[in-house]
Write a structure and sequence with these properties.
The complex is a heterodimer of chains A (970) and B (95).
Chain A (H helix, E strand, L loop, with lengths): L17 E5 L2 E5 L5 H7 L6 E2 L6 E2 L12 E4 L6 E5 L10 E4 L13 H4 L8 H4 L7 H13 L14 E13 L3 H12 L4 E4 L15 E2 L2 E2 H13 L4 E4 L2 E7 L3 E7 L14 E13 L3 E3 L12 E3 H10 L7 E6 L2 H12 L3 E7 L5 E6 L6 E5 L5 E5 L2 E5 L2 E3 L12 E3 L4 E3 L7 E3 L9 H18 L33 E3 L4 E2 H9 L5 H8 L12 H12 L3 H4 L13 H5 L11 E2 L3 H6 L3 E5 L2 E6 L8 H14 L2 E4 L4 E6 L3 H8 L12 E7 L5 E11 L2 E6 L4 H15 L6 E4 L4 E7 L3 H6 L16 E6 L3 E6 L8 E7 L3 H14 L3 E2 L2 H11 L45 E8 L11 E4 L9 E11 L4 E9 L8 E6 L4 E8 L9 H4 L1
Helix pairs in contact in A: 5-6, 5-9, 7-8, 10-11, 10-12, 16-21
Chain B lengths: L1 E4 L3 E4 L4 E5 L13 H10 L7 E7 L7 E7 L5 E6 H7 L5
Antiparallel strand pairs in B: 1-2, 3-4, 4-5, 5-6
Classes of the chains: A alpha+beta (970), B alpha+beta (95).
Amino acid sequence: MSQQNRIEGGQIDRSRSLSFSFDGIRYQGHPGDTLASALLANGVRLMGRGFKYHRPRGPISAGSEEPNAIVELRGGARREPNTRATVAELHDGLEAASQNRWPSLKFDALAINDRLSPFFAAGFYYKTFMWPKAFWEKLYEPMIRRAAGLGSLSMEPDPDAYDKGFLHCDVLIIGAGPAGLAAALTAGRAGARVILADEDFRMGGRLNAETHAIGDQAGADWAAAAVAELAAMPNLRLMHRTTVLGAYDHGIYSALERVADHLAEPPAGKPRQILWRIYSRRAILCAGATERPIAFENNDRPGIMMAGAVRSYVNRWAAAPGKRIAIFTNNDDGLRTEADLRARGIEVAAVIDSRKGEMVTDSSGRLGLTGITVRGADGQSRTIPCEALAVSGGWNPNLQLTCHQRNRPVWNDALQAFVPESLPSGLSVAGAAGGVFSTHGALTTGTGAAVAALADLGVTATPATLPRAEDAPYAIKPLWYVPHTKGRAWVDQQNDVTVKDIKLAKQENFTSVEHLKRYTTLGMATDQGKTSNVTGLAVMAELTGKSIPETGTTIYRPPYTPVPIAAYAGRSAGKDFRPTRLTPSHTWAAEQGAVFVEVGMWLRAQWFPRKGETHWRHSVDREVLTTRAAVGICDVTTLGKVDVQGTDAAEFLNRIYANPFAKLPVGRVRYGLMLREDGIAMDDGTAARLAEDHFVVTTTTANAVGVYRHMEFCRQCLWPDMDVQLISTTEAWAQFSVAGPKARDLLQKIVDQDISNEAFPYMACAGITVCGGLRARLFRISFSGELAYEIAVPTRYGDGLIRRMSALAEDMGGCVYGTEALGVMRIEKGHVAGNELNGTTTALNLGMAGMVSKKKDAIGSTLSEREGLNQPDALNVVGLRPVNPAEALAAGSHLINRDAEANAANDQGYLTSVCHSPHVGSSIALAFLKNGANRKGETLRAVNPLKDTEVLVEVVSPHFVDPEGERLRG
Amino acid sequence: MIINHPLLGPRDAQEFTYLGDANLIDRPDWQADGAGQAFYEYLYLRDNPAGLHRELWYHEQGDRSWLVVTRNISTHEITKVELARDVARAKGRGK
């Protein structure tokens, strides 16, 4: 029994057979089939189960609007849930499975929900499952989640690649039906750069599905000839399997190209899908129209489908949805189905034309349609056996993209549909998308839109002589739902919304379209209500006695059809989520077995474990003690470096730093505090004056980008005539800190010049040479509190320099250290860093109030004087140590007076930086404490409600090491 | 969105970072009477028009120009793009 419903004709390649499976059963189809057409050809109508009531469902459409035939494709890691069988292109070996059923599609245990339907009316979850309250989280919600929902994920990483791409064109044409093809021919022949995108794998739109002739050719043949001509044009890009998803500002469109979804696996080196961003000067929407159903009792049985879809399956895919088919229509277009069916030798069971007063009132058949009940104009009911019913309730223009910038469509009475009116700038509409439903009209408006778009761009295009084409009237008389229905009549099949649900919404006063949508979930499934929105609205209009335009319409957002998250992620997945920046010493550090830490995009060595060290504290304590006793080396390349040059460079720095810089001598470095204009500290660092008109500014690693941006703002927007130039040189120089009592001895072995204390004192800087002539820079600055230098060489020499220096350090009893030891030493020395410059603190808080010069204009100096920032009990940075040295402090703890209750009202401040100090021999902290400058010696409680700890602490100076600064200057 | 950079031509808005109202160019004189109030108004008080808005954009992924973009906030139509430096000079800012 193979392809028993396959008939003659169609645009499939019968010379080849494709084998595929659905729910484990093997079937045969042909190239050109979709999964849905191949299943129908094999007599399979049942393809899924409804969302809420688990009723048997088959496809109602032949396109991307499909609400019912939702399946899982492929297996293993490539399994993809919730795809539409109507657009899944058949390939050899395709595996598909139905979803939302258990244990099988034909027998689904949860079909019991259908009997329980009174409990599942619109908004049921707002009303039921309410008591007892505790049951919601533990019982009701998990139960509902298991019952609802659609397909399931593979839970394995997706093995395929997804790309992002960028395209530019003069004219983007969206949709390759008759209007789109006519527009593309006109624009392409005129020489414009054109992109023609269509979601289908075969271009031609309805021309492939209808039997209309164009000129002397069959419509499908004319389309094929047009596509062949377009394919030969070098200025035109044909994009098959590409859905334009969204219309954005200034002519930008997004599109998803399914490069390899129609293959078992993407070919080597190819992505599965590409998310395109298309920059167009003009765009023409030729997306056609979508047919809508008529709601009647039990109108959701497999076999009941749109009349246009029936014609598609019969004409394009040679797959008969049944051997005996009835037709139910409210317009002339639906009537055409009869002739097409007869021409293919399919029996037409009946034609029910609602305009004559006849209605389909009910249907029968448990897993598929077996018959319909018809009420004649005379009021008499009769039953008619049939396997399929072709329904046409009229067509809705596919105007979604015209709404993406909040333009609203208008109601057209003659068409009984919304049509576009105001449009996004640069977009025009042609063919059925604009409410022009005949083939002749599509060709004419497509050509006209292309001519007009090109005229906008200054190109004169000659419209081709158009062939003769169908121009029949549409003649619709609205019928949204069959009146006097007692049972359930579906409006939205994917979310199981019935006419009754809309009545209930009205009864409970959810009559506005936005309320209707949210209360009933109408149009909120993955099909976004393409077949149901307008019908739902029309039903509500009738119930409230208002006109449809009075009732209003919802508008649309991107995307037009669902997009896999993987396509939005593109290549930005896993390690490639963002770039990794490596320091110049990275390779060497990795060789040493360093443990790395992410610092923004940077990977920095956190510590360097040695043999026998089993805990990170062993390594860090050793690095700190070795550095303080002998010498230590650390890569500090990640600190931001901005090169500042020009005759006004000194004055520029004088204004961006709160402390003075104008008189900094050449060859000297100064610490600088940068404020935001609101008086809060922004960043700190150093500025080294290498020449009269040349400084090097350093920033913290975290703020390198923001500080540079701020400096450019000041330069360009505030003081545009200053002679000052900025360039970021962060990555141009490899920079290492060399700290410890033996730092000078070590450096003197590689620096070619004299760096004795007299020749190169504390806070000196200079351009020097190392290792016999290599250009370098030396700064005598210290973050650790030790005698220390920072030495910089061009980045490409960083690896060589660390190898040389680390070997020297080893010989002198020194070591290299990572960011953890760096942090410990700066806390021991009482240097503030990111934890203290946290976006809420001022110079006063940081103990640097005296640095804010009042003799000059600098960013932030005026507003730093605000009263609120200068209260007597303002926070000051202090040091803390536990009264019992065995106790550990926790960062984030809050300070509370000894006898006060631990609550927010009694808060005295908080701990910002905490470490174990090998120098002190206990846990220490930097903290902000109210009026802390005057509270040394006090005992407080460090309370941490998150960890449920409380530690008695003593307030001390933040300078735990060398408070007089003798080591630095030695 | 596309910003028509005065030096580089049309560029995608993704290349830029946004700061805010172009009035940030009008930084007050720190020595004038009532400088504190003037700085407060400069930094915190903004018009929020449903229409044309002059705003500062920074071409961070490009040539690092600060631009003054005149944009209709309701429609995103961009009617003018200038170098912020030129705007600042025209407003009398110098060194």
